[in-house]
Structure formats: C-alpha cells, structure tokens
Amino acid sequence: MNENILIAVAWPYANAEIHVGNLTGSHLPGDIAARYHRLKGDKVLMITGTDSHGTPVTMSADKLGKPVEEVYKSYHEGFIELFQKIGISYDLYTTTHSENHFKVSQTIFLALEKNGYLFKKTEPQWFSPGLKRFLPDRYIEGTCYICGTDGARSDQCDACGNVLDPTKLVNPKSKVEGDTSSPELRDTEHYFIDLSKLEPDVKKYLQDRSSYMRDTVLGESLRKVEAEGLKPRAITRDLDWGIPVPVTEAGWETKKLYVWFEAVIGYLSAPIEWSQVSGSGEAWRDWWTNPKAKQYHFIGKDNIFFHTSLWPAELMGVGSAFMEIFTGEKIPLILPYDVPANQFMNLEGKKISGSRNWAIWGRDALTRFDPDAIRYYLTVNMPESKDSDWDWAEFVARNNNELVATWGNLANRVLAFCYKNWDGHVPDVPFDTAQGALALRPADLELLATIENGFNTVGAELDAVRLRSALGEAMKLATVVNQYLDVNAPWSAIKVDKAEAGKTVYTALKAIDSLKVMFAPFLPFTCEKLHTYFNYETPLFGEQYTETVKDSLGEHTVLRYRATSASGQRPDGNNTNAQWIPSDLQPGKKLNQPGPLFKKLENEVIDVERARLGK
Q1: How many CA atoms does the CB half-sphere of 132 hold within 13 Å?
Q2: Angle subtended at Cα 81 by Cα 75 and Cα 82, rounded to the nearest 5 degrees
C-alpha cells in the first residue's frame, strides 16, 4: 500500500560551507530515504532550505562587513550547487527568507496566541553599552554553568548539549567586541510560549513512539522532559533581521520571531511553497492534514530536543487554529512520525572545525572524487547510533575493496563479457514449456530467489531507517553473486558449452539488474548509468533543476526535482508504478556498450588529503 511520506531535513545556517559531517548527519540520509520511497511508489515530498535568519548568519555578515541578505544568498546558492552535484534530490530546497515562510510563521504565532499558549514577559537580556543594542544569544559566550566548559553559547552548550538560561552564563563576553567587553543585563519584553502546559502531551507523544524511535533520540528526549520539564521559552528577540512579530503595538517593530521558533516552521511552509510553485493547489495537505501520512525529520544530534519536544509542542499548541486562520477550516496538523537523528561524524580522530579548516568541504571534495564514492563512504560510516570518524585510509580502502572490487567489477565484468560474446544482447535461454519457465538450473534459481528476497531484507532496513545496515545487506548480496560466478566461471565454460555459459551470464545479469535497484537510493549516479547499460528507456529517478521565485521580499532560487519526459512519473516527481521489484530481464534484450562504474584510488590520495587538513 502506497503511503504519503514527508522527508523533512534540517535547515543549514547560511554562515558556512557544508562539510561531510553535515551531509551524513541529515541531507544524505534524507535523500536515501526519499529515493527508496519513490522507488516503492510512495508519494514522497522531500523539503528543506537555507536557514537565513539565525544569529550565525548575522554574525557572519558582521565579520565580512556585508549586508546580511547578500551573505545569506551567497551561501544559499552554494548549497544548491552542492546538492545538485552530490544528488540530494529535494522536491523543494528553499529559504526561510520568503514571503510564504513569513506568512506561515506569523500564522503559527497567531494560532498559538488564539489558543492561549503565548504570554508577554519582561526579562533581563544581555545588552552591549558600546554597541547600544541587545545581543542575541550567539553573540554572547562564556563558561557553561552546568558542565564548566568555556566557549559555551548563552543559549546552548555544545559540550554537554544542554539548553541554557542566558542570564546564568559565567563570565559572559561579547563575541563582537572581544574579551574586553562588559555586557550587562537589561530588561526587555518578549513573547513566550508556555511549554509547561504542553508537557504531558509531549511526554505521551514520545512514549507512543518508543517501539521504533532510536534509543539515542527517545532516551535523550524523555530524559530531558522527565528530569527538567518543559518551561516557558521566549519566541521573540531584539533583532533587525528576521520575521516581524505580527502585532501592532508600539515597540515591537524592532523585534523579530526567534529563529529556533520560526525555522522549524519551514517544514510546513516549504510544502506550501512547493504547492504554489508547482501549481498543485492544496497538495501540501496530503502530508500535513492526512492522519495516515508519515513525516520523517532528518537532523543531527545537536537538534534532537528541538525536533522531538519543542516542535511537536508548537504543533500541539496550534491544534486546528492554524488551518482555521490560514484556510478557514478547523483541521489539525499532524505530528512528526519519526526523528531518525544521527550523531556526529569526526575527522581523523578530531572534531570537525570549520574555523581551523579541519573539515572536508562538500563542494571542494567533489572536485576530486565522484559523488557516489563520497555517498558510499558516508553511508557505510554513517553515525546512526554513535559518533563515527572519517578516515582517509579507510575511505580509499572501502572505495577500492568494496565499491570497486565487490560491486563495480561485478557489474562491469559480466556486462562487458556478455556484450562481447553475445553481440550486445542478453543471452538467449530456452523456455521449458513443461515447467512454464526458462530452463535454468537449480543453482541459477537459488541465486535469483536469494536476490529477490533481498528486496524484503534491504527494504525492511530502509523502512526502519537503518541505512548502514541496508547498504550492508545489498553489498552482501553482491558478494553472493560473485561467489556464484566463481563457481560457474562462464569465462571458462564458454569455451566448452556456450549455452550453459549463457545461462550463468543471464542469471548474473538478472541479479545485477535487481541489485542495481537496491543500490540506487545510495548510489544514484552509477545506478542510473548502469540502468542505461541495460537499455531501459524509463530512468530510475527524475532530475534536479533550479527555478527563481519572486515575491514581495525580492527573489530567491529554489532547487526542485521533477520527472523526465519518459520516466512514467507523476508531475511531483514520484513514480506512478513501483520499481522496488525484482528484475524482469528478458533473454535476447539489446544492451548498450558498458563501461566501468567506479574509479580505483591510489594510496597516495591518503597523504595528499591529510595534508590539506588544518591549512
């Protein structure tokens, strides 16, 4: 039964290039899940965009001495370029700086206010006498009052992961003014969301997902709710850049919606924008008001609490008031189904650090390595349950010993051997009329049955968002096909009995044709190439393209995904017919000239790449 699947991915801040840790943390797992569900025939919508309003963005603009909008757009365009090159197939990659996102975010605010979950409160916040303005949380650093770590942001400590009370930060300093700064606390009025009223519902929401939510996600979330409770939290800040607070009272024109509150609303505003730019009317409702739809939120571990507790609390507080204000109908919005958050990826035994250039930047790496080689290593090394480590020696070894030797050589040597010895066609295998099937041998049938069952085993792991395991299962099946070829050795058998060798080659080709589909969510570029070697007219996936959207705030570029003309897919890029099925390769089918899928890497790469780090 086909399902409506929303793949919602963390919104990257427009203040730094995206590195491999960001990719494996959220964007790549989201893409693998989206591609798998498209192949299954599910109705998929994969969305996110650039977080344009966070204080990291304004701090970056301050550092560069450039307008915030110019800085955000520069990073935004770079993100889109990266996602196109590495194949992150967003149905819509947009930005929080759009008229649509402003409207949806302000409507969420009004819905919470309507339902009685907002209140105003005056509280002390850090103020710079020198700059004569309030300093948002990331502009202040000091010593964490919980774990004692220096360099903690005033809103959250990266070392212990706790959300902090900014006023309790020890030895606070302004990041803009340096160690000589003396910020002081001054009173300012802001709106708060009363999360304490929603705490019982959030706790039940988490408990209801205990059978499938990852232990690293559920455990942390429940522990915090049970130990600390949910307390009222400010949702506005004294800022010049961002979404205006939708009130008419004097004094609020200099305040904006707090980024932690409005950025997650992008998971709702982006589907609405997708419907608008696609001319699909109210299609976004298929993922937001349909109780049977499933929403998966792919994020890193530093954002777990926001997505498992604060964002669901926002939606619970909204109830049906958002739709009542937005469309005039009293319909509740659904809650996220799962939050398969990943842990962190380190680099050569150290934490990734952009400031020290201890990182592998996505766009830079793609100038030297093929996208599927990077995708493969990021997946087999994905930090699903604990932190992982990118090691250049392991990258080269896995590329050569697994991607090239086990899978790439299997596909290439069988196709090349067949193309040469059967005049570019799949070998003919006689039809056994008595059996009503091709006259294959027991070993052939056993292999094909094993491969066919792989759609269940690999699919089950993908359904459960165990991506490393899913790719491992597919690679195990490739090994089984290699073992089958070692036993039957068609390159030798052809000299004695071409018909028997043909049965082996046919069986192996059919197995490879099926494995191509299982590998496709992970390795879309090479699997699409392999698909063309088999001479299929209908591609496995659609294609990515950019589009310019104009509104009252100006214009912004979006990345989109669509079907190709012959793909047999719906206009939204999803398959009309499921392709997550075993191969139906027919004897005698014409093939296209094959070629290698992957490149072997020399060991010299290890030292060269390590030498780049920290420079």
Answers
A1: 0
A2: 90
How does 194-227 read in b/e, with b if 16+ C-beta sit within 10 Å?
bbebbbeebbebbeebeeebbebbbebbbebbee
> What is the reported pLDDT for 455?
98
CB 403 within 8 A of CB 376: yes
User: Can you tell me the distance from the alpha carbon of 525 to that of 377, in angstroms, rounded to the nearest whole number?
Assistant: 15
pLDDT recorded at residue 118: 98
Dist CA 522 CA 597 (whole Å): 14
**pLDDT tens digits for 9-63?**
999 999 999 999 999 999 999 999 999 999 999 999 999 999 999 888 988 898 8
CB 314 within 8 A of CB 24: no
Report yes or no: 242 and 56 within 8 Å, Cβ to Cβ.
no
The whole-number pLDDT of residue 468 equals 98
Torsion, Cα 526 527 528 533, to 10 degrees, reads 90
Q: What is the pLDDT of residues 182-233, one digit of tens each?
A: 888 999 999 999 999 999 999 999 999 999 999 999 998 999 999 999 999 9
Nearest to 87 by CA among 16, 129, 27: 27
Q: Thinking of the domain 111-255, which architecture would CATH place it in?
A: Beta Complex (2.170)
Domain 4-97+262-371, CATH 3.40.50.620 — does that match? Answer: yes
Burial of 464 (0-12, 13-18, 19+ CB in 10 A): middle
Domain residue ranges in the chain: 4-97+262-371, 111-255, 392-538+583-615
Superfamily of domain 392-538+583-615: Isoleucyl-tRNA Synthetase; Domain 1 (1.10.730.10)
Is residue 166 a contact partner of residue 123, using CB atoms and an 8 Å limit? no
Predicted local confidence at residue 176, as pLDDT? 77
Specify the pLDDT at position 565: 44
- Pairing outcome for strands 92-95 and 43-50: parallel
Pairing of strands 233-234, 184-193: antiparallel
Provide the token pair at 409: 């050589």
Determine the pLDDT at residue 568: 42
Q: What's the pLDDT at 82?
A: 98
